[in-house]
Amino acid sequence: MKPALTGLLLLTLLAGITAEAADISGTLKPKFSIEDQPIHDSSLRYIFEVPLRLMVHHRTGKANLNVAWVLSPSTGNPALSGEKGVHVFRLADPNSRIFPSTWNGDESFSILHDIDRLNIGVRTSFSTLTLGRQAVYWGVAKSVSPTDFIAPFQYGTLDTEYRTGVDAARSVFPIGMMSELDAGYLFGKDARFSDSGCWLRGRFYLFRTDATLLAACFRENLMIGGSLNRSIGGGTGWVECAFVSTGFFSNNRNEETYWSLSAGYDRSWLNAALYGFLEYHFNSPGADDPQDYSYVLSGSACRNGGIYLLGKHYLSPGTSWTVTPLLNFTGQALVNLTDGSAYLSMNGEYSISQNTVIKAGIARGLGSTSYDTAGDAGSEFGTWPGYYFLSAGYYF
Length: 396
Fold this sequence. Notes:
By secondary structure, the chain is mainly beta. The protein has one domain: Porin, CATH 2.40.160.10. Helix content is 7%, strand content 52%. The chain contains 3 helices and 21 strands. The chain has helices at 3-18, 293-298, 300-303, and strands spanning 23-28, 31-36, 44-49, 52-60, 63-76, 97-99, 109-123, 128-134, 166-176, 179-186, 197-206, 209-218, 221-232, 235-246, 256-269, 274-283, 313-324, 327-336, 342-351, 356-366, 386-395.
């Protein structure tokens, strides 16, 4: 289906819903960003985009409809192409690029769109069922979540306000105070099993501790995991882990078993004006020697299991300072304890009014960008690109 026709049909649907007194809201977030690729060339890539997100929520009886459509014109060197960097769980998508019709790789202007939410939810006396494109996520870790496999944000992503919508059927069954069972199916492209997934997750409150257990299948991989989250000494401690067997449901049986874990502690001071946390992350597919990073990249954990970190041991400190109710600063780092490199992100946010926010930030890797005679990079985060951005968000 052509993008223009898809947009027209969606606007017609939104108009019909709005005529029945639905709740409509949205965001307009102009953003200027610069990307610095330290290992490719010395040139800087800039992008100016003006994403408009329209959201509709319509409730009738025990059912509700949620729709979100995103229109994103951009200019840059090049502009945004609309190509998704990673595979997402979606049955089908219209062409995300409205203009230009073809992409040569160096176009300076583009118009993209995305149907990011389109789901119907039904609440009954014993469960809540949601069918369609929706946000599905969980996990308690602050830096890298071992169990959040559906549509995770890669560490260092600057805009994390909205999760990418996925096509799923999901049921949540309350089973007691702060306890529930959560089951669902993820539809991959053309509903192929090799691109799809499913999960069964239980959340329980036991001995003043939030505990979760998860069993999932995604893209023919098997995941078993869970988390614990508990108040300790005026703060909160947590641990989250997952065991994955890649290709477990594949006929090829080309399996690799790995596990990952994140554990940390956070607390607030000065009447919650100052907040800090410290988290450790273990990544078993990673290497103890930077010379072996290329072998990690070629392994099935990176190719099929969603792993993107190359080392084994990481430390992530983070802090947030609320200067006034309208102004706050946050900073976080992920340190590779194997090679000493780090990826830092810092941003500040100021609320001009109740509906308008200005935000600026930087995210950059620190470490060696040199290569040895075999072509292997000297550090992991030294090769990650740097981002600098300034944005203004208007909520209506």
